[in-house]
Design goal:
It contains 8 helices and 2 strands. By secondary structure, the protein is mainly α. Strands 1-2 form a two-stranded antiparallel sheet.
Length: about 240
């Protein structure tokens, strides 16, 4: 439990402290960011940039398209056997190209420093770095687990097994689509104003905004692993 408490303390301190530090560095008033409950204000429409939209689209495509193509290739190679029983997924994603890091400890320290700097930068350049709010928690958790010699959601990638990664991200995206649908038809609903990519909405969410559900799915899996590891430490066999 001490390990779990320590990791959540570091995660909370970085997620809350770093943006406040950036706000102070930018010279903005901190009080309006800390008020609870927040007061309703008029939200100006977010700026839009075709250049940023194209770059985000290319980046998301470069990350997801190879995975989708490899998964499709794997499904085409499935050999149907006569046995009526199958586990789900019946073949899995265990034959992807292995991808690992030669120096995990150095990468973990670098991940913590980059995440902290990026979160602080949100207070200075919120319109450019807002996406780090979705990505940084995952990097922080994985980095802490690496430094403590624990397994994490990316541990199977060096063995070519992307099953947990793909299933977690796909599950979050699938659920996210329903969340946005329910939000759209609610009497009181969220209305988004996302900088630089606020176009082509599906329900209330801009199409590129759905990419935020992919790291969210991995973060849910990472939190689940943290709790599972804590239970194992507290209840050793």
């Amino acid at each position: 439990m001490r390990r779990l408490s320590f990791k959540f303390f570091i995660l909370t301190a970085m997620l809350l402290g770093s943006p406040v530090l950036g706000i102070l560095l930018a010279g903005h008033p901190v009080a309006r960011y800390l008020e609870f409950p927040p007061e309703s204000r008029y939200v100006r429409h977010a700026p839009f940039s075709w250049v940023a939209f194209a770059l985000y689209t290319l980046f998301i495509g470069a990350v997801t398209i190879p995975v989708i193509l490899n998964a499709a290739k794997s499904f085409r190679q499935i050999k149907i056997e006569s046995s009526p029983t199958r586990s789900f997924p019946w073949r899995g994603w265990n034959d992807f190209k292995p991808f690992g890091c030669a120096h995990p400890k150095i990468s973990a320290y670098a991940g913590l420093m980059i995440s902290g700097a990026g979160l602080a930068g949100i207070g200075v350049w919120p319109d450019s770095l807002f996406s780090l709010l979705w990505i940084s928690p995952l990097i922080i958790i994985i980095s802490l687990q690496d430094l403590m010699g624990e397994g994490h959601v990316l541990s199977d990638m060096p063995h070519g097994n992307w099953r947990l990664i793909i299933s977690s991200a796909a599950a979050a995206l699938f659920c996210g689509a329903f969340w946005e649908m329910w939000n759209f038809y609610s009497l009181t609903r969220w209305e988004y104003s996302i900088p630089l990519v606020d176009r082509f909405k599906i329900f209330e969410m801009p199409v590129l905004g759905y990419a935020g559900y992919l790291p969210f799915g991995l973060e849910c899996a990472a939190i689940g692993q943290l709790l599972e590891q804590a239970m194992k430490y507290d209840n050793p066999l």
